[in-house]
């Protein structure tokens, strides 16, 4: 069963459940408090979702003295965070940066995050995030996440046990002219792609030790709303039975994005819909976002997400050139995967090719991208790909002319990767959204304050409702300029949402 | 006072009003029916907004036998439609096309609308729109809108009294290879930019003659919602007094986009925010969209809109070339204004220049775009604009080489405008979003069925609530491929929304 089919099945299930509601006309509407005859369970703060955002919220709400219940719709805890590399983007002088003599400052981190990415980024969130980043890293360490005092300068997620690296586009043009680059990717010091699992193990252990009540296999369907708009609980299903849970202080929506809800993808994020690999845990069906919208929340940047093309490692590939359907270069090849993917998916109609020569070609069988042309001359490559006549040849001639002088006047590729294309066999690797390994994940979500309060279309707080992580429109925007911004946002603002919910005066259920 | 300031002032006013509500915690929340002690007025269908969408809805609801009240927040009726050129995109063999021996078919119109624009367009709406287009044009004629049996093949809105022209990008590449081009811009046969006013005069006269009750100066603030989710009325202000209007059959939201709400623009549509000329009537503050969101409606394509750069007339300018900040061409210069504007605003970081030669230069003082460089060689132009060295020279050499043979291998500019750049003075005209005359208007809005029923985040109907025009996500998407699609969508789906609302069983207020 595909993820899309699962979405359909879940909706039918919801429809069936809704039909049993006494006075609710539609399956998706918020549930009026008056329709809930009695509560089956009560808690102080109810967290929906067990990824990094939800568990961080639960830990902090519990530490602030509230009873906390956390529910997860799937059988396993951890969400998409556990599938990820486990990178948290942190800087401004974290303990790990200091231990490794890495120079960084809050100001340079802020400059990078506000200048190198989207138009009109969320400045207030970014400022808090940068100012609190060193403390936030200490907190992650306190939760038991293991970091090693090892730095790597290689591009790409460390596959060894290094815990600090350049996880983004800091060193590529134009970012490097906008802010002083520093390595800010903080990753658990475990080999392979296991950082996310390790990070979630630590957070989940903490939550359990603190006494957070955790239930898996519990799907949330409707928020329960008082006549005055306050969110006071949630309708869930437990083992097929419908139950009402009262949340006396607040509900925290933290159940991820909507990459596996194909209908939402088509409607909200057509460019991401095209990408070959919907990337995320099977629970990323948009239910939390939709429950928020159903009670009047605004949702922002719903078209945005990451779309990444992992052309490195090996870094040798970066001595090739990337061209669009007109045979023109359009980006420095050493841009971070997320910046390159954004350029292709959103701005080049989903089509691009990496042209390699003898020494930049992938040395191994490269399953991520297929070689769609191979020839002994650039002209033959151009003919095979049916580029406009003479266009690729002109692009290569211009590139080679300047690369021979160590220059890239158009896109300022870093010197480490800059040299003329120097001999056959030439190959073209298909970087198109539909053909390449092109993972995508959504960034659109509910409009929230810096404390995770969910905001209405008029910018006003919806009392009792909080959200974090990919249920919200947070710091990650398109283009995605660095790995670790999503998990960083999840943990940093998850904590704030948990604290804010716990601090809210309780009310009778 | 700027449009943005007006938005702020209106919000404060709303906040004040809301504070007087007995049990409503937030100013923007939907108003519970239980908080409305009595209705001040009652109607069958209440239409909010007096542009083409609202008035078309009102006419059809009235014709279907319902009482209809239409309210307008400003002092004058007509909305942004009255400011527009009055173009309705229609085809598939309209009476006017037939009278002028224009060949067209529903299929070719559908191909153009589904293939030449956005990814994943709203197919069901487009199909109905194309199939019903000839009938819809007859309806416009019946309302008294004057059309002349005159066709012009000149590009750009006719300034004479011609009523049919190519209003979009049908003849430019790649559209002309995707669908057989036909002139489909139907515009009232009045000289100058008066088509929109003339169209609205006719529709407003019809509505009045049919007995639609119309009130100007009446702002709508909250939808009134029953406990089961049905929309049953609206809270408005009339002469500073708060009033409750019951709508026994339905409320039709038709009060335009949000181009003048700067906060919404920043949050939802950062690329459009950059454009120099927010284009729309002062009432385009997003209130209708926000009222819909407040009752749980989904809003789609909120980042999208038109962003247009009217580089023609004169068509002679199209023999120049348009380049990006890398000195590369990226589009056929004879693309429709909306297609060019989209490419610049969304895909070239807001920056582009038109390079003209002796014969393509604007002959008159051109207030829309400033010449930012003038020189006797292309190299000097490139130096003045600080393009990457040699890049513009290479672009021009390639273009000239092929143009001399009547070819444009990269972008297939139409032969009528294709010739080598042939001599100084060369000029560069700034087409940047912030510097050029760059009007923008929003396309994002509420998710609706083909009958204007407003849909929740789960795709379910919100009973009693309808929407049309730029309160909805309709046929116009980014890129905007033809003038008249917005007004066409407003009138076509406005009619359907009005009929659907009138047909709905009434209920006690």
Structure description:
- The structure is a homodimer of 509-residue chains.
- Chain A is an alpha/beta fold.
- Among the domains of chain A are: 88-192, no CATH class; 309-430, Flavocytochrome C3, Chain A, domain 1, CATH 3.90.700.
- The first copy, chain A, is 31% helix and 18% strand.
- Chain A is built from 16 helices and 21 strands.
- In chain A, strands 1, 2, 3, 7, 8, 9, 10, 20 and 21 form a nine-stranded mixed beta sheet that branches.
- In chain A, a hairpin with a 5-residue loop joins strand 8 (218-225) and strand 9.
- In chain A, helix 2 (52-63) runs parallel beside helix 9, helix 2 (52-63) runs parallel beside helix 16 and helix 5 (106-115) runs antiparallel to helix 6.
- The model of chain A is unreliable at 1-28 (pLDDT under 50).
Q: List the chains of the largest interface with their residue counts.
A: A-B, 66 and 66 residues
Total helical elements of chain A: 16
Can you give the mean pLDDT of chain A? 92
Look up the CATH topology of the domain at 309-430 in chain A.
Flavocytochrome C3, Chain A, domain 1
Oligomer: homodimer
The CATH architecture of the domain at 309-430 in chain A = Alpha-Beta Complex
* Proportion in helices of chain A: 25-40%
Low-confidence parts of chain A, pLDDT < 50 over ≥5 residues?
Answer: 1-28
Considering the chains and any ligands shown, give keywords for the structure.
homodimer, 509 residues, alpha/beta, Flavocytochrome C3, Chain A, domain 1, nine-stranded mixed β-sheet, four-stranded antiparallel β-sheet, elongated, disordered N terminus
């Amino acid at each position: 069963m595909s993820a899309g089919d699962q979405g359909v099945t879940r909706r039918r299930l919801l429809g069936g459940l809704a039909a049993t509601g006494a006075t609710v006309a539609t399956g998706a509407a918020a549930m009026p408090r008056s329709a809930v005859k009695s509560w089956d369970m009560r808690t102080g703060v109810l967290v929906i979702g067990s990824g990094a955002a939800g568990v961080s919220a639960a830990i902090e709400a519990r530490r602030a003295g509230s009873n906390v219940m956390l529910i997860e719709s799937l059988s396993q805890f951890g969400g998409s965070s556990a599938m990820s590399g486990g990178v948290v983007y942190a800087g401004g002088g974290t303990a790990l940066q200091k231990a490794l003599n890495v120079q960084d400052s809050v100001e340079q981190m802020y400059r990078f995050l506000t200048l190198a990415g989207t138009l009109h980024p969320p400045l207030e969130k970014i400022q808090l995030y940068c100012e609190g980043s060193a403390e936030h890293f200490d907190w992650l360490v306190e939760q038991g996440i293991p970091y090693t005092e090892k730095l790597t300068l290689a591009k790409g997620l460390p596959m060894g046990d290094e815990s600090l690296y350049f996880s983004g586009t800091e060193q590529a043009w134009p970012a490097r002219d906008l802010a002083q680059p520093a390595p800010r990717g903080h990753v658990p010091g475990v080999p392979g792609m296991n950082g996310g699992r390790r990070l979630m193990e630590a957070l989940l252990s903490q939550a359990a030790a603190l006494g957070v009540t955790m239930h898996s296999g519990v799907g949330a369907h409707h928020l329960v709303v008082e006549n005055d708009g306050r969110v006071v609980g949630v309708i869930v299903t437990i083992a097929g039975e419908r139950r009402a849970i009262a949340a006396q202080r607040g509900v925290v929506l933290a159940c991820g994005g909507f990459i596996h809800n194909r209908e939402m993808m088509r409607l909200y994020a057509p460019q991401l819909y095209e990408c070959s690999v919907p990337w995320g845990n099977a629970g990323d069906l948009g239910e939390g976002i939709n429950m928020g919208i159903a009670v009047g929340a605004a949702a922002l940047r719903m078209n945005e997400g990451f779309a990444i093309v992992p052309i490195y490692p090996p870094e040798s590939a970066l001595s090739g050139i990337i061209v669009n359907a007109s045979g023109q270069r359009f980006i420095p090849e050493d841009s971070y995967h997320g910046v390159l993917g954004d350029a292709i998916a959103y701005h080049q109609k989903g089509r691009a090719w990496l042209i390699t020569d003898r020494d930049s070609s992938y040395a191994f069988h490269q399953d991520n991208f297929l070689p769609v042309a191979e020839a002994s001359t650039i002209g033959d490559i151009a003919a095979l790909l049916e580029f406009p006549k003479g266009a690729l040849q002109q692009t290569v001639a211009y590139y080679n002319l300047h690369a021979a002088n160590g220059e890239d006047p158009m896109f300022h590729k870093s010197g480490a990767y800059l040299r003329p294309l120097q001999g056959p066999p030439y190959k073209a690797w298909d970087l198109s959204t539909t053909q390449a390994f092109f993972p995508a994940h959504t960034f659109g979500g509910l409009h929230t304050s810096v404390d995770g309060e969910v905001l209405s279309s008029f910018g006003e707080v919806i009392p009792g409702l909080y959200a974090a992580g990919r249920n919200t429109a947070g710091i990650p925007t398109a283009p995605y300029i660095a790995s670790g911004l999503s998990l960083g946002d999840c943990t940093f603002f998850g904590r704030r949402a948990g604290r804010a919910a716990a601090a809210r005066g309780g009310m009778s259920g």
